[in-house]
Specification:
Residues 269-344 form the Cation efflux protein cytoplasmic domain. Keywords: Membrane, Transmembrane, Transmembrane helix, Transport. Its main location: membrane. The chain has 362 residues and is an alpha+beta fold. The protein has ten helices and five strands; from the N terminus they run βαβααααααααββαβ. Strands 1, 2, 3, 4 and 5 form a five-stranded mixed beta sheet that branches. The longest helix has 39 residues, at 54-92.
Length: 362
Amino acid sequence: MSDQHRHAGDHGNGHDPDHGHGHGHGHSGEGRRGLRAVLGKITHALAPHSHDTSDKTDSALEGSDRGMRVLAISFAVLMVTAAVQAVIVVASGSVALLGDTLHNLADALTAVPLAIAFSLGRRAATRRFTYGYGRAEDLAGIVIVLLIAASAALAGYEAVRRLLDPQEIQAVGWVAGAAVVGFAGNEWVARYRIKVGKEIGSAALVADGLHARTDGFTSLAVLLGAGGAALGFPIADPVVGLLITFAICFVLRDAAREIYHRLMDAVDPALVDDAERILATVQGVRRVGSVRLRWIGHALHAEVEILVSHDMSVVTAHKVAVEAEHRLMHELPRLRAATVHTDPDGPAGADHHATLTSHRTP
């Protein structure tokens, strides 16, 4: 016997007793009696089984709301920071400060694609986009990487141009002050984005927070250029501008790697370990087969296989699958939907997937 169980339902609603827990699954045959009820249970048991619960959906929507709020506040803070620095760039002519200002402006503008992605992610799944629009966050991540690359190119160009034609920096004290303002604004935004990004499971928001943190430290690097200029070394300003460009390139590498992992459905191996541990403790599960996890936006989706006794009835195997799913939904952070596939364990030598062997990739 090889049965695959998938079923969508809502937490908190009435639930068929055969599911073994108090969460509704929306049975069309609920309340039937006799033979029709038995047939309904067996038909339901043979269908694939998945949870897409209302509390998880509400949590995902709440995460999107929090993400939008973070983006709005951080956008305002960084725009004010960049505006203050831009005024001092015009007055001082500091290329290091110009590079930092451009970087801060680019960081602020990353809020735009992320806001669009969070908004799209709230849309319901359709027959074309059956998993919903959560992947829009990954597309926004690509835009963020391109913006970071553009800021690095522009800052590098200005630094090289000024290195070839050094110019005296005016208002050195104001340049130093602007650098401190840039550090304070970026560090506050970084902490805010990283904290909320981790809480809602948004890799794009966390990456953007790390980007802001690096911007803060590059703002402090501007102080070195200002100090060098004050000591009579105007070349220090474009040299620091080049150092900032290199720093942006390191951020670009890290951000690109983060987005690449999401696009390739990479997850933290510790999450897979947790899922296997949870499944192994479910009563009736003899062994845990494959466990596949993927991020869709800032929500996790799972596809897992469990092995149960080969002489277990379809209805009982279904109960085990539902309980396994139920445990995953409640114990694996940010898991929004799960599909549980049950396979019979035994008898010895039996191959329950023989007909599929030729279709499976080695």
